[in-house]
RNA sequence: GCCCCCAUCGUCUAGCGGCCUAGGACACCACCCUUUCAAGGUGGCAGCACGGGUUCGAAUCCCGUUGGGGGUGCCA
């Protein structure tokens, strides 16, 4: 043959993670939940084959929320099979467009999501196998050299003709040179049915599939080939990816079969599942350029990973019953590719945010306070939103105090990044909202009067506690014919700088008598 | 142009021939609760794209129309 020995399953030999992992290996797995629903089992040579799926992102930009959903669905599938394997393979062919920082971003995103995997592997590591596959196919007569430029191909294309390449060089018998690329000879007639678990079978007329390029002039294998070789080497059983890849499926099947024949290694073809696209309000595919698609962005804004995962699962799929907030174990138990919707889904940040608020409220007070640390603790934290630092320093920050305040804000935020603005007055002098200050203190004659009455009343309080503060404020308001709603406004503004915030009397009690009185006096002075 | 996919409230979806007077969630509106803002509670608004079939019966099956989208790279 051609001296080419395809590797077996990716495993011990080559398959060592290419980099030391800095983040702790996320997630725990193994135990598949009881009562799970299985993927239709795949058999090969009479044996049931464990599910092997993969995520194959290219490092050409931020980690996309759509990629996150694809990752999640693949991960779920692997989890449903006690022997299932989920591989992360970074498709880093095309040196022109890849950047190392983006591959790091892929690892970071996966770590945050907590989706554990086998790998990570890099497509570039498998370049020798790609070259060997190219040689095997060429020797078998499946490939031919072509020196047409894109412009020439374009110029020859007639009106209404089959798109793509016209087969001009098919029988020219060109040799390898610096100006020849390698094309795959595709059949001209017949139909190819792509088995797709979400859509059923999709039929393609072979006449509509052109002789596509599998290797550049430089000789390097292109995605079209590398992807198939890697999936074969990895013994992938289910190719689960976005719908934008649907048109690639028949080409990949053709290549896969040709590789089986050319190498004499019969690897069963995978079955496909093309997930509906995630779209923006204009119903266009989410784009890295116009839409907020970077997963990192959501983490920075204080979305909880559990909420993000839950929301992603709801895009194109839904749990049984009326409850949408579902634990991951339950999602794994219920998920079936066959139930995935066929139509594109709008990525609705408002719904994500609402779901996130729900998740925040379900946190224990301790867990909530801990989750807030990157936003409130000026000390050392494991992670910080990009470009953010609390507005207060260590000397003013009090962890115990924040723990007492946290429950007050927990039910008031839908994102963690809203927390600092809600608690800042505990750690810094009030940053006055001047419009608010004018409204309820400077330009309202009752304002200063309420303030000085509060100074007197609060100073004489036996216990500086919420109930007493409430009663005192109610009383001083009534003395002026003011509702509690009206009476609390100037006090809140004087002490917190704003008109909205956590419950006032609890806040004052936590702040303490001395500080409260001082702020009341300060506000009176600047009125 | 050509190939392919898709079509239930504004949005995400349930529905897989009779349980549908079409269910839930987000958003929106009203009311209640209330020291602000939220949260919470109650109620409301709102949908089967259109036209033909098939059937005793269609949101559900078939065909067509229209409308959206994806692909059409020596990108992935």
Please write out the topology.
Layout: E1 42-44, E2 47-49, E3 52-55, H1 65-80, E4 85-90, H2 100-113, E5 118-122, H3 127-139, E6 143-146, H4 150-156, E7 181-184, E8 191-196, E9 200-205, E10 213-215, H5 223-233, E11 238-242, H6 249-263, E12 271-275, E13 278-279, H7 295-300, H8 305-314, H9 328-334, E14 345-346, H10 349-362, H11 365-376, H12 399-410, H13 419-423, H14 434-442, H15 446-459, H16 466-478, H17 484-496, H18 504-511, H19 513-526
Helix pairs in contact: 3-5, 3-6, 5-6, 8-10, 11-12, 14-17, 15-16, 15-17, 15-19, 16-17, 16-18
This protein binds one RNA strand of 76 nucleotides through strand 7, strand 9, strand 10, helix 5 and strand 14.
Structural features, described:
The protein is about 40% helix and about 10% strand. By secondary structure, it is an alpha/beta fold. The strands form six sheets. Strands 3-4-5 form a three-stranded parallel β-sheet. A three-stranded antiparallel β-sheet has the order 6-7-10. It has a two-stranded antiparallel sheet with strand order 1-2. Mean pLDDT is about 90; it is low at about 1-40. The protein binds one RNA strand of 76 nucleotides through strand 7, strand 9, strand 10, helix 5 and strand 14.
Q: What value does the Rg take, in angstroms?
A: 31 Å
Helix residue percentage: 40-55%
Strand order in the sheet with the most strands:
3-4-5
Number of helices: 19
**Tally of DSSP β-strands:** 14
The largest pleated sheet is described as: 3 strands, parallel
Return residue spans where pLDDT drops below 50 for at least 5 consecutive residues. Answer: 1-38
Shape: elongated
Helix/sheet category: alpha/beta
Q: β content, as a range?
A: 5-15%
